[in-house]
Amino acid sequence: MAIGMSELKKGLKIEIDGIPYRITEYQHVKPGKGAAFVRAKIKSFLDGKVIEKTFHAGDKCEEPNLQEKSMQYLYHDGENFQFMDTATYEQIALTDDQVGEVAKWMIDGMSVQILFHNNKAISVDVPQVVELKIIETAPNFKGDTSSGGKKPATLESGAVVQIPFHVLEREVIRVNTETGEYVEKVK
C-alpha cells in the first residue's frame, strides 16, 4: 500500500528503493510561496544510518514488509550472534553490524525481538528494561553512601553502568537499555 505525504508521521515505517526506514523526525513546512512539503529524518533498519529526506505533494513511498518475531539469544560464536525461534527451533545468525549496540545488554537465553524484512532478519531489539547481575564493582567504604555519588559496575553482559554506592557485586539490578542507566536493585 502506498503512503502519501499527508500520512507521514514520527515512528512510521516506510520503504524507499527497497530499503526499510523509520521516520525519526518529522516537520511539515508550508512556505509563503510554493507548495507545502515534509522534511523528515529517516533511519535505515539495515545499517542504522540517518538521512534527511524531503517529501513533496504527490510523492509516494511503500509500506515495508516487516515482521517481528520473538526469539531466544543463544550465544556469540566469535563471528555471529546465534538466535533460535522457540516455536520451531529454527536457528539464525546475525552479524555484529546487524545486532549493533544492543549486544551489550544480551545474555545467553534472553528473549529478544528480531525484525525481518521480506523474510530476512535485519535487526534485534532487547526489552527496554533488563535485569543483569553485577560481576565487578568497587567495594564500599564508610561514608560513601551519604554523598549520593555513583560508581562504575561491569554487568554479566559486559556493559558498564554507573550505580549507587550501596549496590554491591553479585547483586541483580534493572537497567534501562535505551539510556544505559541504572533503574533499581532487584530485591
UniProtKB/TrEMBL annotation:
<dbReference type="InterPro" id="IPR013185">
    <property type="entry name" value="Transl_elong_KOW-like"/>
</dbReference>
<dbReference type="InterPro" id="IPR012340">
    <property type="entry name" value="NA-bd_OB-fold"/>
</dbReference>
<dbReference type="InterPro" id="IPR015365">
    <property type="entry name" value="Elong-fact-P_C"/>
</dbReference>
<comment type="pathway">
    <text>Protein biosynthesis; polypeptide chain elongation.</text>
</comment>
<dbReference type="GO" id="GO:0043043">
    <property type="term" value="P:peptide biosynthetic process"/>
</dbReference>
<dbReference type="Pfam" id="PF01132">
    <property type="entry name" value="EFP"/>
</dbReference>
<protein>
    <recommendedName>
        <fullName>Elongation factor P</fullName>
    </recommendedName>
</protein>
<dbReference type="InterPro" id="IPR001059">
    <property type="entry name" value="Transl_elong_P/YeiP_cen"/>
</dbReference>
<dbReference type="Pfam" id="PF09285">
    <property type="entry name" value="Elong-fact-P_C"/>
</dbReference>
<comment type="similarity">
    <text>Belongs to the elongation factor P family.</text>
</comment>
<comment type="function">
    <text>Involved in peptide bond synthesis. Stimulates efficient translation and peptide-bond synthesis on native or reconstituted 70S ribosomes in vitro. Probably functions indirectly by altering the affinity of the ribosome for aminoacyl-tRNA, thus increasing their reactivity as acceptors for peptidyl transferase.</text>
</comment>
<dbReference type="InterPro" id="IPR011768">
    <property type="entry name" value="Transl_elongation_fac_P"/>
</dbReference>
<feature type="domain" description="Translation elongation factor P/YeiP central">
    <location>
        <begin position="68"/>
        <end position="122"/>
    </location>
</feature>
<keyword id="KW-0963">Cytoplasm</keyword>
<dbReference type="InterPro" id="IPR020599">
    <property type="entry name" value="Transl_elong_fac_P/YeiP"/>
</dbReference>
<dbReference type="GO" id="GO:0003746">
    <property type="term" value="F:translation elongation factor activity"/>
</dbReference>
<dbReference type="InterPro" id="IPR008991">
    <property type="entry name" value="Translation_prot_SH3-like_sf"/>
</dbReference>
<keyword id="KW-0648">Protein biosynthesis</keyword>
<feature type="domain" description="Elongation factor P C-terminal">
    <location>
        <begin position="130"/>
        <end position="185"/>
    </location>
</feature>
<keyword id="KW-0251">Elongation factor</keyword>
<dbReference type="Pfam" id="PF08207">
    <property type="entry name" value="EFP_N"/>
</dbReference>
<dbReference type="InterPro" id="IPR014722">
    <property type="entry name" value="Rib_uL2_dom2"/>
</dbReference>
<dbReference type="GO" id="GO:0005829">
    <property type="term" value="C:cytosol"/>
</dbReference>
